[in-house]
Each structure stands twice: as C-alpha cells, then as structure tokens.
Amino acid sequence: MSQLAFASGGFHGLTFIPETEFGVTPTGVDVYRFRHTTCGLEAKKDSLQSAELRDDAQISDHRLGNKQAGGDVGFEFSYGAFDEFLAAAVRGAWAGDVLKAGVTMRSFTIQRLFRDIGQYETFTGCEVNTLSLTVATNAMVTGSINFVGKDGGFADAPLSLSPISPGSYAPFDGFSGALFEGGTKIATVTSIELQINNSLNPLYVIGDRATAGIQAGRINISGTVSAYFANQDLLKRFLNEEESSLKFMLGNGVENSYGVEVPRLKYTAGSNPVNDESAIQLSLPFQALMDSVIGSNIVITRIPGAVVDSVPPTLATTSPSNGAVDVPVDGNIVLNFSEPVVKGSGNITITDGSGNSVIISVTDGQVSVYGSQVTISLDAPLQASTTYYVNIGDGALTDAAGNAFTGIVDTTTLSFTTAA
C-alpha cells in the first residue's frame, strides 16, 4: 500500500503577477516569486442563516453568501523583494529610487503552490489592505501584508514553473542601520513598528457573489516607537503635543538599503510602565501626517548596489543655507550630498575666522550619516551674533566606491551668522 501524500509547509510556494486590469490575470508576462514566512490567503464566503422561528426550535435553512479572497502573508524584509508591494501599499510609483504616497490602486494575481501534492490555488484582484514592518533588537526585520481580493479558487496548473526572484538578498536585521527622531540620531530605541492601512472595503452587487470592486479609504500610516526610558525628551513631545519626524535606515545606508522617513508625525500616547526589575521602556504610538513640503506622509528611498563609480560626491544643499542669518546657536548643521556617503577620516571645522574654532573628527558621535545626509549635532552651543564658516577635510567623507568628497577649504561655500 502506497503512502498518502500530505501537503507540508516546507514545500509551500507563492508567486505573483501585477495586474493591469482588476481581477484579470495577465498572460505572457513575467511571474515573480513571493518570498514569505507564513501565508493565510484563502477564499471564503459569508454565512447566511435563516431567522425563521419554528415550534420545534430547529434551524430551517443555511446559505453561503458573498465570496471574497484575501488574508495575511508574513515575510522577512529584504532588499528588492517587496518593491511592488511597497508601491501598492502607499498607492505610489517609484520615481527612480524614491517612493511617495499617491492615489493609484494596484492589484495582483497571487498563486499558492503546494508542490509536494501538485495543487495550486489562485487569487485574483488582490490589493494591499495593510502592510506592516517591525524592526527590533536581536531580530530579523519582519513584516506582514494583508490582502483583500476579488476571487479565489483552485487551478489546474502553476502560473510559471520557473518564477523570477525579485530579490535574493539576506533579510535586514536590527543590528545595522541608523535611526533619527526629530532630526537627531538616537541610540536608545529598542523597536519600531510601522503600519500602512488603506481601509479596503469590498463592494457587492445583486446577481454576483464575487466582489464587483474594492473601495479604498485614506492612507493611514501609524506606528509605535519603543525606547529605553533615559530622559523625558520623547515623553515631553507627546505631553506638549509637539510635531516630530522619524527616519530609519535598513542596511548599511550605502548599498542594497532602504531609508524610511515619516517627515511629520504626532505621538498619540506615551507610557513607561514598570512590571519587574528589568530596564524600563517607553512606548510611544504615533500618527503620520501629510507633509505639505514633501507632499507625502511617507518617503521610502531605495539605495541600490554599488556600480563602477569614479565620480566623487558633491555638496548639494545645506541647512542652514550659505549666508543664512539668525541661525539658532544650538541648531543642527545638515549637509545633503549628491549620493550616499560614509565616514572617512579627517575633521569638520566650524570657525569664526578669528581663532575660535570647533574641530570635530568625522568619526565623533556629533557627526551622523543617513544615506546622502550628514548631520552635525554640536555638544555645546555656538556664540551668539557670530559669523561662522564650515570647513571639511578632503577625504572626511566618501561614497561607497571610496571616492572622496574634496572638502571645503574656503569661507564662501558655507557660512552663516548666529542669532543674537
């Protein structure tokens, strides 16, 4: 007697195709592998039970109602594997390597493969309802996508016998990268949870069990920052209803990395409970808001792998700008370059030209790098009503290929005057 074959999760696969028409699977196009850790996609029907009252207390009838498809897919977040779904989640399109929120809904055909028993289940018209990411210490960066779809059922054949892998890089982890809150790098954060919610609602019409379309709500981006309770700075932002911002880098920030920025947010709560003798943690849920300057409530920057490069980075913009006046004495100095940079060796000097200078090694904690942005956070305030010049040593900053920024050695490239 032959042994019966049972489906095993070890042989479960997922593939997907971006649709051009809602609920219609394209033909003759590329099929992509969907990297995942869990899958709860299913076809289901509403349950309709008769409310008839009988003198024998029995239920007289039961029907199945509207049909829909959907469910959650869990994953470990890696470079290049989820770009299509990130764009769908924020209803935007990648402009080069930058993604912002938009207004265009996208749908996918997704197929489950039970390879060990030769069975296939296909779901059409799948739109991203929610997408979440969790970055935590001592862990892979994980996420989950909840899909709402048009229809689903078993198929006779796979969409492809050799799907294309959209990315084969290792998952990101919480050991690499950087995090900025309110423009300042902080090192006490223990986890970040980010959720994008489109509030999808399937619509039905008489005469058809399958959904006729999917209605989208607003793009609601929220999350939670958890950090060791070291001071009241973050908690005060909540109590004083101060707006802030959040940026975090996944990867080394030089190649095969993502920068995620929430340019404008408000914390909606703040708690630091004590449950035992372990370190006290502060939990701060937040709500993202549309930034009128950027035109989006989120910006995701993709940093591809390094290519042959002989062009050094150049300074694009600065804050304060060259010649600015009334600059706060304790404000940050932000340098934006033409490409991502890393720390090399050398100094950054802030001088008044009369012998009063602040000399900072680029490797000092006062200098932080986030992709193409360098932030100088001075330990001590500058003098009031004073004109300063910023000089940067040749090679203090380089790009991924080792091309050095030639530096600033004059008094005209970046100068500013502090407030009285």
Describe it for me?
The strands form five sheets. This protein has an 18-stranded antiparallel β-sheet that branches. A five-stranded mixed β-sheet has the order 22-31-29-25-26, with no helix packed on it. The protein has a four-stranded antiparallel β-sheet with strand order 21-23-28-27, with no helix packed on it. The mean pLDDT is 92. The chain has 420 residues and is mostly beta strands. It contains two helices and 31 strands. The relative contact order is 0.12. Strand 25 and strand 26 (357-361) form a beta hairpin. The chain has helices spanning 83-90, 233-239; strands spanning 12-18, 32-33, 38-39, 42-49, 62-76, 98-100, 108-114, 119-136, 142-149, 151-155, 179-181, 184-185, 189-197, 201-203, 213-215, 220-228, 243-250, 257-267, 281-288, 299-303, 315-319, 324-327, 333-337, 342-343, 347-351, 357-361, 367-370, 373-376, 387-392, 397-398, 415-418. The radius of gyration is 26 Å and the shape is elongated. Helices cover 4% and strands 43% of the residues.
